[in-house]
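REVIEWER CHECKLIST
Item 1: Sequence provided? yes
Item 2: Single chain? yes
Item 3: Sequence as submitted:
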Amino acid sequence: MEDFIAEPVPAMAAEVFGPNLERAIAYAEALVEDSDQLGLLGPRELPKLWSRHILNSAVVAELLSSGESVADVGSGAGLPGIPMAIARPDVHFVLIEPMERRANWLQQQVVQLGLDNVDVLRARAEEVGRSDFDVVTARAVSALPKLLRMTVDLIRPGGRLIALKGERAQAEIDEAKPLSKKLRLKSFEIVYTGDAILSEPTRVVVVKLV
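Item 4: Structure as written out by the authors:
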C-alpha cells in the first residue's frame, strides 16, 4: 500500500495566519490523524494538504469584513471554514454539516483549537432556519445553480455567496444566471484570492444578493 506523506508547513503559512499559525498547524495535524477514519480527505490529498486545502481556503478570508457572520455550508473537514476562522478571529463562523460524525469532529476541533469565533451546527443547509448571515461559503458542495437554491434563504438582503470553484466557474455562472430574478441575485463575479501569496490563487465566485 502506497504511503502518502503530509505536506510540510510552507513558509507562506506564517504570512497567511500570522500569530495564529500554531492553531493552523494543529488543525493540519488533526486532518492527517483523522482523515482516513472519518473520510475527511483522501490519502492522496495529504501531500497537498497546505497548498490545495488549508492555505487555499484561508486566503478567501480576505474577502470578509470585520464583524460579519459567515455560514460555511457542507463544512465536512472544516474547509474552508476553519482555516478562514483561524485567519480571521474578528469574523464569526457557523460550520454547517449534516453528517453526525463529521459535525462531532468539527466541534472537537473548535474546542481543541480554542476558536471562540466558531459554532458548529449539524444540519442540512435547508434546515437551518436562519436568514441573517452576511456571507455563505461553500467548497466542493454543488454546482452553482443547485448551491444557490440551497443557500439563498440563509443570506440576508444585500449579502453574498462566496463559492470556491475550479475551471468551470464561468460556465456555472452562465448556468445560474437564469435564476437571478427568482432567487434575488444581483451580480456574479469571479475573484482570485491570495494572489499576492500563493503560486496558485484561489478562484471564487462571488454572488451578491439584492
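Item 5: Key structural point noted by reviewer: The chain has one domain: 12-209.
Item 6: Recommendation: ____
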